[in-house]
Amino acid sequence: MHELPITQHIIKIAEKHCRDNGGSRVTKVNLVIGDYSGYVGDSVQMYFDIISEGTLCEGALVDIQHVEPKLRCNKCGRLFKKQLLTFDCPYCDGQGEMTDIGKEFFIDTIEIE
Question: Read out DSSP for 13-24?
């Protein structure tokens, strides 16, 4: 349910971008959503389709780029995807530490016509 207010905000930003750049409508909104961001891309898409009706965003496509979380090894420094039930680095015998990779949530680009 917390996707509703963020989606409303996305629509406001996209409409402002469209008006400020002389567009007649928003055709596409490209989002980056990390798997650990706390937001569900399918929910954002559903709310966007519903609440964009009657706005400059009505009918716009929403393209979501998902970002998988990555750990950083405390020994070799390499990034890697966490495996189930372990923090072991697949490159050395180090241990993975949490990073901000996978927590992203932002509008990458807005396309208008």
Answer: HHHHHHHHTT-S
Burial class (CB in 10 A: 0-12, 13-18, 19+), 96: buried
Query: Tokens for 38?
Result: 């706390």
- The residue type at 35: D
Q: What's 88's DSSP letter?
A: B
Cβ neighbours around 97 below 10 Å, total: 11
DSSP, res 78: -
**What are 106's strand-pairing partners?**
32
- pLDDT single digits (tens) 66-108: 999 999 999 999 999 999 999 999 999 899 999 999 999 999 9
CA 91 to chain centre: 29
Residue 104: C-alpha distances to residues 40, 64, 71 (Å)? 12, 12, 14
